[in-house]
Design brief:
80% helix, Serine Threonine Protein Phosphatase 5, Tetratricopeptide repeat, 10 helices, mainly alpha
Length: 204
């Protein structure tokens, strides 16, 4: 190999390294600025920066998640779901992302979808808010037995009550007892209905 070819190949390698470093630097800048705008509540500017980051590196789930969160803050739930789902597929199960998706379904009154998300979170997260939303979602879709089962499981566990007041949760479980008792009575199971009516009365 002659000297001119060596010089040419060396130059190409150097240019490649410089281009890669430059692209990485620009990407980091877009992410950093996007985060800053997000924290300031300037969600449109945040989305713009994260989209620019995706153009440079479409394989990183972070900007997709942040775009989803930005749309969530703007109450644009359809777009939020779109980007959060992409992020979730790329990075695997992320509890924060799952929680936001569950909250979106709950806000949209898509309680069957919310149940699927909150049930998965309930089994991995010791979180009173998730337990509360799961029980409420079951009630809203008429699955009172499941609402009771998960409500009792949460109440009898070592769950932390820092995100939902325990009295609020107890009131929701009482609602589940009463509705389940009514359902049982309508279906001719009066003795079983009495059990849950009594449970509702005794619940403090």
């Amino acid at each position: 190999m002659n000297l001119s070819k060596i010089v040419f190949l060396t130059s190409m390698v150097v240019l490649g390294i410089v281009a890669f470093s430059f692209g990485k630097s620009v990407y980091s800048t877009y992410i950093s600025e996007g985060m800053s705008f997000y924290k300031l509540g300037e969600y449109d500017k945040a989305i713009e920066n994260f989209n620019s980051a995706i153009k440079l590196n479409p394989n990183d789930p972070l900007p997709y998640r942040m775009i989803g969160l930005s749309y969530y803050k703007k109450s644009n739930y359809d777009e939020a779901l779109k980007y959060l789902t992409i992020s979730l597929v790329m990075e695997g199960e992320n509890t924060i992302t799952l929680s936001i998706i569950g909250n979106i379904y709950y806000s949209q009154k898509k309680y069957n979808n919310a149940v699927l998300v909150y049930e998965k979170l309930f089994n991995t997260e010791n979180n009173s808010f998730v337990a509360f939303r799961l029980v409420k979602s079951f009630i809203n879709v008429g699955k009172y037995k499941e609402a009771v089962e998960y409500g009792e499981k949460a109440l009898n566990s070592d769950i932390s009550w820092d995100t939902i007041d325990q009295k609020t949760f107890v009131a929701t479980l009482r609602e589940a007892y009463i509705k389940y008792a009514s359902y049982l009575e309508k279906n001719g199971k009066k003795n079983e209905a009495k059990i849950y009516t009594e449970k509702a009365k005794k619940l403090n």
